[in-house]
Amino acid sequence: MREKVRYLLCGLAMGAADVVPGVSGGTIAFITGIYDQLLNGIKSFNATFFRLFFSGRWKEALAGIPWGFLLPLLLGIGTSIFSLARLTLYLLHTWPQALWAFFFGLIISSILLMMRGQRMPLSGLALLAAGAVAAWFITGTEAMTASHELPHIFLAGFIALCAMILPGISGSFMLVVMGQYAYILSAVVHLEMAVLLTFIAGGLCGLMTFSRVLSVCFCRYPSQTNAVLIGFMAGSLRTVWPWHNGTIPAMPPSLDGMVILACITCIVGIALPLLIQHLAAMKKF
């Protein structure tokens, strides 16, 4: 029961993060230590599952899915997106610097956790730098004007949910780049089912495809994949820095109360995952 509550809380955190452009649900999965379970859970919807399901052997098909992990996680993500979307957007408009600083701290902390105990050779450092540069330029891309026809919504879902499970690249930010963010968020708020179901269908296709690519990379090239992901997360710090001059990170205009509050929330963002990881490690002994 305790594990299911943990997965529910992880889902709530992932859903809240995915609402905000610049913060990746994959990053939250890394911070909370469920990333491997997430990939394996998505991969369980494989050819065997669909063969059994569409041949009417539903019980056998469903038996191979880790529902004890996926159901509370999906419940948390869905609850967060549909209920916390308004709160997250309210904080984003009311206390933007403080909220971005908190996310900035979370990403720094996750980078520290991922690098802990790792020896990184020169090739790994090169991959890390390449990932950081790629994420830096991707997250600096300006939004385009896009059509909101259903095929475009399907493609947006495919790309956004691929990005969602990739630490450092935000699915909601990719929606901003594709010009679909406000439209999809409005569909969530107003429950426009045709748009939402098309988006979800595209997202599921993206998840089932990209999760397998990531799993192969982790199995065959674990250290190299880890280095690239750390680089992605480092490069994504561009989007969550609280102050910008256009798309370029900038220093705060003046030392005021908001700067102090942002420093506090950043420290909390750094400390929280480290504390959670420390408490989890203590329980193992």
Topology:
Elements: H1 2-19, H2 25-32, H3 35-43, H4 47-54, H5 58-63, H6 67-94, H7 96-115, H8 122-138, H9 150-164, H10 171-177, H11 181-190, H12 193-220, H13 222-235, H14 237-240, E1 244-245, E2 248-249, H15 257-283
Antiparallel strand pairs: 1-2
Helix pairs in contact: 1-2, 1-6, 2-7, 3-12, 6-7, 7-13, 7-15, 8-13, 9-10, 9-12, 12-13
What does this molecule look like?
This protein has helices spanning 2-19, 25-32, 35-43, 47-54, 58-63, 67-94, 96-115, 122-138, 150-164, 171-177, 181-190, 193-220, 222-235, 237-240, 257-283, and strands at 244-245, 248-249. A two-stranded antiparallel sheet has the order 1-2. By secondary structure, the chain is mainly α. The chain has one domain.
Tell me the helix content.
over 70%
Largest sheet: 2 strands, antiparallel
Unreliable stretches (pLDDT < 50, length at least 5) are none
- What is the count of DSSP helices, taking H or I runs of 4+ residues? 15
Q: End-to-end span in angstroms?
A: 20 Å
- Cα-based radius of gyration, to the nearest Å: 19 Å
Supply the helix-strand structural class.
Answer: mainly alpha
Strand content: under 5%
Task: Please write the string of helix (H) and strand (E) elements.
Answer: HHHHHHHHHHHHHHEEH
- Domains, number: 1
Q: Strand order of the main beta sheet, please?
A: 1-2
Q: Provide the residue-averaged pLDDT.
A: 80
Q: Count the beta strands.
A: 2
Shape: globular
